[in-house]
Design a protein that fits this description.
Blueprint: E1 4-7, H1 13-24, E2 28-33, H2 36-45, E3 53-57, H3 63-77, E4 82-85, H4 101-129, E5 132-137, H5 151-171, E6 176-183, H6 200-203, H7 209-221, E7 230-233
Helix pairs in contact: 1-7, 3-4, 4-5
Length: 236
């Protein structure tokens, strides 16, 4: 059986690790992101599994990009088995006293709206097939606000957690399940966007992108009768 996965934010960080882990497990993986060069690098890193990967430029924060991408993927591969929404951004000037409207809108667009657009692109086919798993890689910032994360990021992550719950509330009886993964600090390039980026010694004990990828694999590999609704994972 040809299993198909779509991963957003696949050009770096957690999205890249998830895409590589899925391709290594035999999935046909569609890698989505805003920059084709970084997506091509992800594909190249797959080695022997690169033939199971497709790089496709798509800014998920733009509804028109997703409306174009979704039918292309479905026409090429058929119904998607797994959708992983891993795209996410933050900004250095993130506190309420300095957050601009443009930066706020950009975070909502990518972090929350993008996941919604992708869900709407692939959920109808999942529903028709009576199977499918949607994994939203969120943040523990979806549990409690903090100055470290900033209000725009926190609001987008609270919204994405709500979307995950809504999918399960409406779709679990039709064979579709959703999982919210809530990681703590992860050593990725997103840390460099903090007002004061953590030094190398502070990153040593953080989670790695591949740790989150293993959480994704857990959520999708359980029997269809089981749902990991939320998975909170933090550095030990």
């Amino acid at each position: 059986m040809n299993r198909v996965a779509v991963v957003t934010g696949a050009g770096s960080g957690v999205g890249r690790s998830v895409a590589l882990r899925l391709s290594g497990a035999g999935y046909q993986v569609v890698c989505l992101g805003r920059t084709l060069e970084t997506l091509d690098e992800t594909v190249a890193r797959a080695g022997d599994a690169s033939g199971r990967m497709l790089a496709m430029r798509c800014d998920v924060g733009k509804a028109e990009d997703v409306r174009r991408m979704g039918p292309e993927v479905l026409a090429r591969y058929g119904p998607v088995d797994v959708l992983v929404n891993a795209a996410g951004i933050n900004v250095p000037r993130r506190a309420l006293e300095v957050l601009s409207d443009a930066d706020y809108r950009a975070m909502i667009a990518v972090n929350m709206d993008g996941a919604y657009y992708c869900v709407q692109a692939f959920l109808p086919a999942m529903r028709a097939e009576k199977r499918g798993t949607i994994v939203n890689v969120i943040s523990d910032a979806a549990l409690a606000a903090s100055p470290k994360a900033g209000p725009g990021y926190v609001m987008s992550k609270f919204g994405l957690r709500g979307l995950t719950q809504a999918i399960n509330a409406e779709e679990r009886g039709r064979g579709v399940r959703a999982c919210a993964i809530l990681p703590g600090d992860i050593d990725t390039a997103l840390l460099d966007r903090r007002p004061t980026p953590p030094p190398p010694e502070a990153r040593v004990g953080m989670l790695r992108p591949e740790d989150v990828a293993e959480c994704v694999m857990l959520a999708i590999s359980l029997p269809q009768r089981a749902i990991v609704e939320e998975l909170l994972v933090r550095p030990a």
